[in-house]
Amino acid sequence: MADQRAQSHQTSASPEVAALLSRTPAVIEPGHTFDSVTETISHTVLSKKTPLGWFLGFGIAFALLMILNMTIGNLLMTGIGIWGNNIPVGWAFDIINFVWWIGIGHAGTLISAILLLFRQQWRTSINRFAEAMTLFAVACAAMFPLLHTGRPWLAAYWLFPYPNTMGLWPQFRSPLIWDVFAVSTYGTVSALFWFTGLVPDMATLRDRAKSRAAQVIYGMLSLGWRGSAKHWQRYEMAYLLLAGISTPLVLSVHSVVSFDFAVSVLPGWHATIFPPYFVAGAIYSGFAMVMTLAIPLRKFYGLEGFITMRHIHNMTKVMLATGMIVAYGYANEAFFAWFSGNPYESFMMYNRMAGPYAVFYWSLIAINATMIQLFWFRSVRDNIPLLFVLSLLVNVGMWLERFIIIVTSLHRDFLPSSWDMYAPTRWDFGMFAGTIGLFLALFFLFVRFLPAIAMFEMRTLVEEETHELDRPGMV
Amino acid sequence: MAHNGPAPTIHGLMAEFDKPTALVEAAEKARLAGYRNMDAYTPIPIEELNDALGLRRTRLPILVFLGGVLGGLGGYGLQFWTQTMAYPMNVGARPYHSWPQFIPVTFETTVLGAALTAFVGMWALNKLPQPYHPVFNVPEFARASTDRFFLCIEATDPRFDASATRQFLTGLHPVGVSEVAL
Fold first, then answer.
1. What pLDDT band is residue B112 in, cutting at 50, 70 and 90?
2. Looking at beta carbons, which residues of chain A come within 8 Å of B118?
3. Is the separation of the CB atoms in A173 and B98 below 8 Å?
C-alpha cells in the first residue's frame, strides 16, 4: 500500500523522498472512496447486530460502575472517613485520581486542536474518539474533588460564584478555585468542540438510517444540517476558532492543576518546573490511553485501514518525546533538592528514593524514564501487542507519579512529630475502579451509538489523498 | 428580495454532481451567468465554493473576539468586585486587589466567553437548528451527506425561469436535475 502512495507522488518527488515515503505508512489505506469510508464507519453504528464482545466488555464496565454507585452511596451516608486519607495525608486518592484522569483527557484536546492547527493529517481518524475520551475522563476526574468535599450539594457555594442569601463569595486567590474554573471551562469547551464535530456526521447517520427511530434521533441531533456551502464556511471558521481557543486552554488546565501544588510551600510541591512538567505528563499519559483504546478498537471493528501503523508510530513518538520531558522533570526535581541546600528539600528527595514508598518511586522511574526508551526502536513501534502492554504500563507509571508527588510530600513534612503513613482503604480502591468502570461504560456506549471516527473529516482526507480538487498537497 | 411576478411555487432547481470539481465549476458558471440566490450542498467542506458562489467572509471571528473580551472583563470584574467590595477578606495581608492572583480565572472566563460565542454564534448565523428545509424533499438529496454534490438555484432569484434555468443546469453536465418542492 505504501508503494502506491509513493507512486502518486513520483511525478513531483525526488527518489530520496519517494524512498522515505515508502517507509512511512499511509494515514489512510489507499483505494477508499467517500462512500466506502462513510459505509465502514456508519455501519458500526447503524447495524442492528451488536457484537457479543461488546456486551461482554460493557458488562464488565457496568459491573465496575455499580461499584462506583455503591462507594458513593456509602460515602454520602457515612462520610469521607471511609477513605484512608487523614492528616497529615489529607489529599490522597482523590487528588491522585483527579490529576490522573484530567491528564488523560489532555491528549484528546491535543489531537483535536493542536494537531489541527499544525495541519497534521494523521489526527483525522483518531480525533473523534480521543475527544470522547477527554470528555469521559473529565467527568471521572471532576467526581473526585466534588465528592472529597463530603457534601457535594453544599459545594456549589464553596466553588461557584453565584449570589446567595448568605452573602458569601469564593476565595479567588486560592488555586483550588482556579482549578474549578479551569476544569469546568475545559469540560464545557471540550463538549462544545466534540458536539460541533459530530453534527455533520449526525446528518450522515440520519440520511443512512433505515429505522424510523434512528432517523428521528439522529435527525434531531443533526440540527437539520444539510451541508450548505454557506454553513460549511461558518462551520469551518468556528471549528478553527474553537481549535485556536482550545490550544492555550489545554496548556492552562494542567498548569492550573499543578498550581494546586506549586503555589503551596511544601517540599516536593513548591517547584517552578511543575506547570510544563505536568502538561508534558498529561499528554504522555493521554496518548498512552488513546493507544490503549485505539489498539482494541481498530482490531475488533476492522478499522486498520483508518487507524493505520502511521498513527501507531506517531503516537509512540509523541509518548517518547513527552515521556522524556517528564523524565527531565524527575531529574530536575532531584537536582534542585540537592542544589537548593535546603535540608527539607533534600530530605524529601531522600525519603522518596529510600523511604517507605521507595518501591513506587523506583517503579515509576523504571517505567517513565527507562522503559519508554524502547520506543526508539522501530521493531517495538511495529509490535502492536507489545505496545498495548507498554501503554497500559505508562498509565500505571503516571498514576504512580501522582501517588509519589502527593503522598511522599505530605506524609513526612517539616515536623517529624506529625509524620505518619498513608494506606488506602477498599473504598478508595472501589471508587477508583468505579471511575474506570464509568469511563469504559461511556466509551462502549459511544462506540455503539456514535461514529467513533469523524466521517466528514475522513472524506476530506480521501479528497486530499486523491487530489481531486488539485490543491497544493500536504504531506 | 426583488422578485417580479407571482410568488414561486417551488423552492428551486437542483443539479446533482458526482465530483467536487464539477460542482465548483458549475457554481462558478452559474454565478457568471448572473444567478445570485443559490447554494451548494456538499458532504465535505469545499473552500473553493466560497469564491465560486461569491460568499462574503463570515462575521464570526469578530463576534468571537468580542465574546472573549466580554468574558475576560466579566471574569476580572467579578473577582475585583467580590474580593474588594462584596466580600473582602484579608489573606496573609495581601492587598484586596491582588491582581496577579486574578489572572488564571480571567484567562479561563476569556476562553469560555470566546468558545460559547463561537458555538452559539455559528449555529445562530447558520439559522440552525432548522427542522424543515425544502431541499430534503428531493429523494436524491440523501446522498448529499455521503458522496454527492448539489447546486440549487432558488426560485427567488430574479433571473430564475423554470425552463431556462433547467436548460442552463442541464448544460453543466450534472448527473441529474430535480425540481425542489416548497
1. very high
2. 192, 238, 241-242, 245
3. yes
Q: Which triple of cell numbers denotes residue A52?
A: 457479543
CATH code: domain A31-161+168-466 is 1.20.1630.10
Cell of B56: 462574503
How would you list the strands of the sheet with B38-41, edge to edge? B38-41, B149-154, B10-17, B176-181
* Nearest CA among A169, A404, A135, A88 for reference residue A268: A404
State the Cα–Cα distance between residues A41 and A449, nearest whole angstrom: 11
Mean pLDDT of A309-333: 95
The shares of helix, strand and coil residues in chain B, as percent rounded to the nearest 5, are 50, 15, 35
Question: Is the Cβ of B50 closer than 8 Å to some Cβ of chain A?
Answer: yes
Q: Is B46 on the interface with A (CB under 8 A)?
A: yes
Q: Which of B55, B60, B111 sits opposite A185 (nearest CB)?
A: B111
Tell me the backbone φ, ψ of residue A81, rounded to 5 degrees: -60, -15
Residue A268, Ramachandran bin (φ over 0: left; ψ between -120 and 50: alpha; else beta):
left
Residue B141 CA to residue A146 CA, distance in Å, equals 48
A252 to chain B: which residues are within 8 Å by CB? 104, 107-108, 111
Contact B126 A234 (CB under 8 A): yes
In the stretch 5-24 of chain B, residues with CB closer than 8 A to chain A read 19-21, 24
Cell of A253: 488546565
* Residue-range domain boundaries for chain B: 10-57+132-181, 60-125
Q: Does B41 touch chain A (CB under 8 A)?
A: yes
Yes or no, beta carbons of A224 and B48 under 8 Å apart: no
Look at A178 and B115 and tell me if their CB atoms are within 8 Å. Answer: no
Work out the pLDDT band at A425, boundaries 50, 70, 90.
Answer: very high
Long-range contacts of A374-380 (CB under 8 A, 24+ apart): A375/A316, A375/A317, A375/A319, A375/A320, A375/A323, A376/A320, A380/A316
Question: In angstroms, what separates the C-alpha of A341 from chain B's closest C-alpha?
Answer: 27
What mean pLDDT, rounded, does chain A reach? 91
pLDDT value of residue A10: 42
- Residue A2 has which C-alpha cell? 505504501
* B25, β-bridge pairs: none
Question: What ranges do the domains of chain A cover?
Answer: 31-161+168-466
**Which three three-digit cell numbers place residue A12?**
513531483
ipTM, 2 dp: 0.94
Residue B108 CB neighbours (<10 A):
27
Instruction: Determine the Cα–Cα distance for residues A97 and A19; give it in Å rounded to an integer.
Output: 46
What letter does residue B82 receive in the DSSP assignment?
A: I
CA dist., res. A423 & res. A83, Å (int)? 9
Q: What is the mean pLDDT of residues A383-411?
A: 96
Beta carbons within 10 angstroms of residue B171's beta carbon? 12
List of chain A residues whose C-beta atoms are within 8 Å of the C-beta of residue B99: none
Q: Verify whether the Cβ–Cβ distance B112 to A248 is below 8 Å.
A: no
Examine the pLDDT at A110 and tell me if it is beyond 50.
yes
Helix (H) or strand (E) holding B152: strand B149-154
- Note the pLDDT tens digit of each residue in A32-78: 899 999 999 999 899 888 999 999 999 999 999 999 999 999 999 99
Could you tell me where the DSSP H helices lie in chain B? 20-32, 48-52, 60-81, 103-125, 162-170
Q: How many angstroms away from the CA of A23 is the closest CA of chain B?
A: 30
Q: Which of A172, A456, A459 lies closest to B102 in CB terms?
A: A172
CA distance A116 to chain B (A): 15
Integer distance in angstroms from the first to the last C-alpha of chain B?
Answer: 17
